[in-house]
Amino acid sequence: MKPTLFVLAAGMGSRYGGLKQLDSLGPNGETIMDYSIYDAVRGGFGKVVFVIRHFFEADFKEKIVKKYENIISVEVVFQELDYLPEGFKLDPERVKPWGTNHAVMMGKDVIKEPFAVINADDFYGRESFRVLAEYLSGLGGKKDDYCMVGYRIGNTLSESGSVARGVCEKDSREYLTSVVERTYVIRDTDGVIKYKGENEKMIPLGENVPVSMNMWGFTPEYFAYSEKQFKDFLKENSGNIKAEFFIPLVVNNLIVNGIVKVKVLDTPSKWFGVTYAEDRPSVVEKINALIAKGEYPEKLF
Description:
The chain is α/β, with parallel strands linked by helices. The protein has seven helices and 13 strands. 37% of the residues are buried. Mean pLDDT is 92; it is low at 12-17.
């Protein structure tokens, strides 16, 4: 059975403004998601599931879903603030989304096979989808055997400002041992990559340190693990209306407790995305360069 691609497209992109998932960046109006779907199809994925918000459903289906109808099987699920386990109520002051792993939980009724998770607004590159599909396709009914595409941090920075990155540590067998979210990572004026640590101290990182760009591979029992941890999360954060339930939080807990193992898949692909509005011209330029090199056709679909 071919794996499924699960695309997190419910966010609004506060720093960029608007629904950047629907922004046309390719020469024929292609979005970043279009390039992800194109790479996923040729990499070996058999279905794509989008998680979105109800308020832009019509626009999303008209501009995005229709173009894939004859390309790959598509399903749409929804993430809303009040989608909570039985026994929990939404704090009326809560406006912030519950985070990436809450979005992942919305796929449990439609995904029964190994699946990958990606962000809608990140350009991941052809090789990343290939290695991810290859790993997931080889699981053959296994459980608790996950993976993560580990990008070399030097290939993931924005030219317009700092970024947040999940900095990874792995063991000698290339299995993930921890992911620590660093909320301020930048290439300093001296050319060295650094993150902001305790007491605002800037700490250097090597060019090839693996980071998570939210490109994960799971099997379906991950949904049950997520539901259990989400209930614990809600109890622990009952007074915090800004707390978010992130994928690395769940994965770290599963690793620490010896429940799962997560293979780190290396990729030479260069990530890029529209983190800031100022990034847009550069992204357009990079896409056109890839088309000129023959990696993508001028018109995808």
